[in-house]
Please model this.
Amino acid sequence: MGTIDERPAVTQPLNKVWYQGKVAALDMLRLDLLHPVVSGNKWYKLRLNLSYAQDHGFKTIVTFGGGYSNHLVATAFAARQFGLRAVGIVRGHHDVLTPTLQDCKDYGMELLFVSQEDFRNRHQPLWAEQLVAHFDEILIIPEGGANERGRKGAGLIDRFVNRSYTHIAMCVGTGTTLAGLRQQLPEEQHILGFVPMKQTDEQRHYISEHLQGISQYSWSLVPDLRFGGFGKWKDEMLVFMNEFYKDHKIPLDIVYTGKMMYNIKGMLDDNFFSSSDRILCIHSGGLQGNVSVKGGLVY
Model:
């Protein structure tokens, strides 16, 4: 059975110059240090799915993603570690593979390219099953590991979260990690989910659906209202990420964690938090996404 050593995950205090007088503590859970490929929350969303596949005789993992998908490349590597075949259904056609897709291929993942329009059918089991019917003994994992096993796996991150924190900040793609962790943590620990899109309706619906009986006031979502939406950024972001690395020696990624920390800095400056608040930011990895940046980063 494949596994990832969880010992490298540490909680790192940020430089006090960043938050002094604004909050009592601001730390970062370095899940990006877990593994160079299966980093951050990706491992937790995959681990129970892969164990289930292995224990129940599945031979092939099928999942979905775009050309720069952290989830695809993590699945490709982790499936190989578990002795499973991996198939990635990729949004759009790529005559030249992105570095991410090339890594997927190098790790043994077979790539199936579908149109943007067809990719919208990925939530329909029958469509996916027909697309991969020629493969043997298939387990389909939704994009981002967004199923019950993915949520339960994400909930295991709670072992790293000290109960003294008043706020837990994390990035939100599908909402799987937030839903899973919200189920495990005390409701008095408020979860702030930073969505790298301009709209949060899809994530809000998914999270609400899987948090029945949990107070809607125990979590909130913050959209990207400055940089233009998913995968978009400005030079201002690169400057911020470089300064953040200089101050804390922590690399951020251009898609998720860069936007999260940029927004948190703005919230600190706007006195959004109480001076007694203690904040834990979860670094969800995904640094391979920085390959889309043509220079400009110091790390």
In short: The CA atoms of residues 44 and 153 lie 5 Å apart. The first strand starts at residue 11 and ends at 13. The mean pLDDT is 95. The domain at 41-145 is CATH 3.40.50.1100 (Rossmann fold).
